[in-house]
Structures are given as C-alpha cells and as structure tokens.
Amino acid sequence: MNIFQISLSTPDDIILHDKDKGGPLKPSRQFGGAVLAAASLVLSGCQNAGGLLPPSADLAQAQNEQTYAAPVSASRAFKTNIASLTQVIKANPNDASAYNLRGTAYAKARRFEAAIKDFSKAIALNPHYYQAYNNRAMTYAAMKRYAEAIKDYNQAVTIAPRYAPAYTGRGKVYMKLKNDSLALADFTHAINLDSGQPAPYFYRGVIYQRRGQHGKAIDDFNIAISLRPSAGPPYLGRGKSRLALGKFKEAYEDFYIAARNQDGYYQAWAYRGLAAEKLGDRKKAERAYRRALSIRPDYRRALEGLNRIGSSA
User: Fold this and answer.
1) Euclidean distance between CA atoms 45 and 275, whole angstroms
2) What is the rounded distance in angstroms from the CA atom of residue 153 to the CA atom of residue 169?
3) Which fold has domain 1-137?
4) Of 45, 157, 170, 309, which has the fewest Cβ atoms less than 10 A away?
C-alpha cells in the first residue's frame, strides 16, 4: 500500500491441523511430536512478536492477520524457532510439513529467500501441498514477484478449489497490479467459501471505495469490524467512506478507533485531523496532524493539513 499498511505480517496458514480435506503430509509417527512441539514455538514466537497468528494458524492465517498488523522484524524468538525446526528437519529430512513450518518462520523473520527455498522443498516432497504453494505465493508477493505469486496461487486453487485463503491472497496481488475486477471476483469467491474471515471483506471494501461505491464499502467494512473489532484498518476504511459521504462526526470517531487499535497508525491520525477540519475544529485538527507527524515526520497528508489550517510543522 499503502494506505492500510498492508504487508506480509501476514493478514493465514502454516496449517498445523487442516480442516480441509487433502491437506499436507502429516508428520511421521517417529518425529510428529517434535514437529508439533517446534510448531508451537513458531506460533508462540509469532504471537509474542506482534500477535499475528491465532493458535492453530500459520502464514495463510497471516493473510487475514497481515491486514491488521504492522510488519514484524526478525527477533530472538524467530531465531529460536528456526533453530528448533532445523533440528527437526535434520532428524527427518523428508517431512514436508517441517519445511513448510520453517519456511513460515523464515517468512515471518523476513528472510524471504530462505522461506522460498523451504516452501519449494515442501512442495517437492509433496506436490499436492496446497498450503505450501499458498505460503510461497504470499512470500513472492512480499518480494513483489507478482507473476510468480499468481502462478502459485493458481496452483493452490487447482489442487484445493475450496481453499479460501488462496483466493484472498491472489486478490491482493491483483489489487497491487491495479486489476480490481479480478481482485473483486477473488474476494467475493473467498467470502462465499468462508464468510467468517475479515480480510476478504476488508479488501473488497477497499475496491468498492476506490470505485466510489461507499455504501457497499461501508457494508463490507462493517462486517470486517464485526469479525475482528480489535483491528485498525477497517475503521480507517469506513471512516474514509463516511468522510466522502459527508458524515464527518462518524468519520472522526472511526479514525480515533483505528488509531487506538493499531499503534503507530499515522494515517488514521492524519485522517482524524481532516475530519476535525471538516467539523470546523481547528484545534483538534492541529492536534491530530501533529500526532501523525510525531510518528512519521514526513507524512505529506499531515503536513498539508497543517498548512491548510495555518499552522507550521
């Protein structure tokens, strides 16, 4: 983005238990416990580093989470997790799930080339491992290698046509490529397959907003909020559409909730300043713009806002 700070923090899948049929290879009896133990370390490490993953998820679950969290840097927790998974792989080098799991840890640590290598190994060991294709696609997308990402998403949905996270991920790549029509179709399909995930509603709302269809955008943002009320970006999105519809007071409140829910959300503070301007409250507008600039001093929207109300940065 990115106005909504979308990044591979994410917002869906290392699949520790697979609710879809035809999932990844299960760890062998001999080493399955070790894989699951290492998996728990990865998940706890991801949660400690930014709350990115629910207890049973991995990188694809991150696809939903990534919408709502800031990027995560490599940390001691990730290094510990990677080291533990490396020991599991040494003991059982033919376990595809272990490579997929370590690949996810590498991706979370933003060691993308290493992640790609592990996902590729998982796929070589199990060519039907659609979650590994999805994870590799997400990593390619984070590297801006969009053609390769789409190719992997296509393979994931060929193997598992009802695997909703792959449609959401591919839709996000189409958005990056400014192909909103294909993105809209993918998000809608993901919603039809699994209506309980906030990410496709959020991204579809962004597309409606781009098209000036603010009523539809607000409807989707409302659902995203109902599914994950602690997120920031859906409130920012709804606030922007409310702003466009002249609902300045409601927008002002939405931008505050967005900023409260997500630390360092300078975009939300800047838009709160704009809403305060529209409400005629210059003091609140200046306060919000300065709050945005305290986080990102070069943010143009906030600088321009201060200039409009006659206050220097």
Assistant:
1) 38
2) 7
3) 1.25.40
4) 309
d(CA 218, CA 158) in angstroms, rounded, equals 32
Residues 6 or more apart whose CB falls under 8 angstroms from that of 281 comprise none
Q: Which of 229, 161, 174 is nearest to 207 (CA)?
A: 174
Q: Are 222 and 193 in contact (CB under 8 A)?
A: no
Cα separation, 305 vs 138, whole angstroms = 36
Q: Does the predicted model carry a pTM greater than 0.85?
A: no
- Identify the CA nearest to 207 among candidates 193, 231, 195, 191: 191
- Domain boundaries, given as residue ranges, for the chain: 1-137
Residue that has been written with the tokens 């201060």 in this structure: 306
Cβ atoms of 204 and 224 within 8 Å: the answer is no
Amino acid letter at 210?
R
pLDDT digit of tens for each residue in the chain (313 aa)? 332 332 222 233 322 223 333 344 344 444 455 555 555 444 444 333 322 222 223 455 444 444 433 333 445 666 778 999 999 999 999 999 999 999 999 999 999 999 999 999 999 999 999 999 999 999 999 999 999 999 999 999 999 999 999 999 999 999 999 999 999 999 999 999 999 999 999 999 999 999 999 999 999 999 999 999 999 999 999 999 999 999 999 999 999 999 999 999 999 999 999 999 999 999 999 999 999 999 999 999 999 999 999 876 5
Which residue in the block uniquely carries the two structure tokens 């933003």? 110
Helices 300-308 and 266-278 pack at an angle, to 10 degrees, of 20
SS (H, E, C) 100-148: HHHHHHHHHCCCHHHHHHHHHHHHHHCCCCHHHHHHHHHHHHHCCCHHH
For 12, which DSSP code?
-
